[in-house]
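Quick note —
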Amino acid sequence: MLVGATLLVAAVAIFAVSQWVFVRDGQWTSSVVSFTVALVGVVVALGIAVCWILEGSLFRRLANLTGQVRSLGDGAKEFAPIDVGGRDELTMLAEKINGGFGELVQTRTQQAHQAETLATALDELKTRHADLETAHLRLQQLQQVSASLGGSLEIQDALGQMEDVALGIFEADEVWLLRLQAEQQQLSGLRAFSTHKEGYARLPRLFGCAGPDGVLSLGASPLLTNVFKDAGPVFLESVTEMAPSERERLFNGSVPNFDGFHSLAVVPLLAEETPVGLTISASVKPSQFTSDKQSTILLFAAQVAQALENTRLYEEIKALGEIDSLSGLHNRRRAMEQLEIEVARARRYEGTFSILIADIDNFKLFNETYGQPAGDEIIKRVANILHHRNRSTDFVGRFGGDEFILILPATYRAGAATVADHMRLALGSQPFIAPNGQAIPLRMSFGAASFPEDGHDASSLIAIADANLYESKRWGGDTVTVRREPIGGEHIDVSGFSTLDALVSAVDNKDHYTRRHSAHVAEQSMAIVKSLGFSKERQEILRVAALLHDVGKIGLPDRILRKPGALTPEENDAVRQHALLGSLMVSQHLPDLEEVREAVATHHERWNGTGYPAELKGRDICLLGRILAVADAYSAMITDRPYRAGLSLEDAKNELIKGSGSQFDPEVVRVFMNCLESQPAETLARDKIGLSVAGIRGL
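Predicted structure written out below.
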């Protein structure tokens, strides 16, 4: 196209020149025409020749160059250098184009590499973002766990708020938390979480427990033994694809049936490297325990372990404020709290309950005689009996000093009396062995009160129980009183003898045992004189003498009268004066009752003349005094005293028979033996355990 245009321009130019040169006066000559035609023909021929030459070399090379450039521009996968041949400007142009396209290919390669690098980095960023989201979620879960556990020292309340969190951390279908009881070498269930319906968990049953709160022995499973032995967690991604060595180590070679669970995690709860519990999780699908997931689980376990340790410390501190350090029982403050709880419960459900307040008889004198360490040992022994003789629902506490309190839910008055009497008898069967080897009987008095009969609030019940305890003490101790009776309600009815009432009350206030013993002596003496055929008047005289035969003990110091041990010779000499002192008191205050005075004065004289205070012999001793001597000795022998246990009924009778003719009037002993033989067995047994004047009062 370029050559044709050039020829056209050349022809036009020739035509113009020829016209200007040869045209004369506006007319063409024939020679001019011929020349012009020839010139045009030469020009055309030259153009054709030039076109042919260019077509054969330059144009073809240029077309080749254009085609290769176009192919490269169409996105060829590989770059092939352009070759146009020759060593002219076109070749130089091709080399320039080759250089440009080479740089372009290199740039494209670099861009592709950069794009690939960016894509890889983006994928890594996406993965890292997902990991960060997972880590953030786990941190949030751990934060929720920390908030739940830190918000309450009651571990059950805290665990109840973290079910979803625990399942999410383990990515499990069930999680079971247990607390280690190191003393018993067993685990007790705390809480089980499940993705199934609430309260449904299979894990406890797989380990032989009926429910989540079951107790699991550490030796129940080789798996548990290994976990606590190594103090390390066990993560099983698939229980069916374990290595033989792992199966042998964890399950002794035989994998148990996991009831559809495929993955398992058993993680000890360690507080300062000391096991305090265990966490078991299980999933129905195989799970991957990545290092991050294991780290989160171990952090969770550490938080729960610390919470358990804090709970243990809290319970210990709380116990220090609620437990009496000497007896190991609940203290008074805790007892009053429990009493208020029982009152509220009984009011709400219109129920009933009873309380017992118990006091060790003569404990002060026991302490003074044998020392405080021995007294502390008595407190511990009594506490142990009260604690182990009660029901699991009963509450036992030390109320202060030698006083104890028992709260008996759903127990009526008669039931409370039975409980107290069983404890009283149990205590009496375990005497204290004094340093000299002597068995010293232990006795307690009980006062009872029942809701709502005796009171509708804690203070009223305590007041009634205290009053009943005082009644038991008034009757000589070793007694259970369940219903308060007016003070002085046991008034001795001897018409006109108001002075006698005063003397009897004085004896009672001085020593409760003496009052009970005197009443028993009066009862036995009456049996003897009835058998001897005494008149009503003489029977009454003997009864008064029996009630007052120890009235002289009013003048003895308490440290001697209530001493829980053997008396020294000097103390014995003081005691031997009580008969003479008693006769002087009767003579002074009841001058008209000479027979009473004489009986009181001679009831410690002996048939063989070795008694006191006058060493009278045989029938020189008045008959009433001889009768009192037998009844007094029998009652003293079968009654427990602070310094020794009472004899059995048979042993007491044998002692009377042995002393017949030496210490006692043989005829009186014979009559008394007949009286004892004629008494029913239950009456004799009742006399032995003191129920005629002690035991249970008020029913």
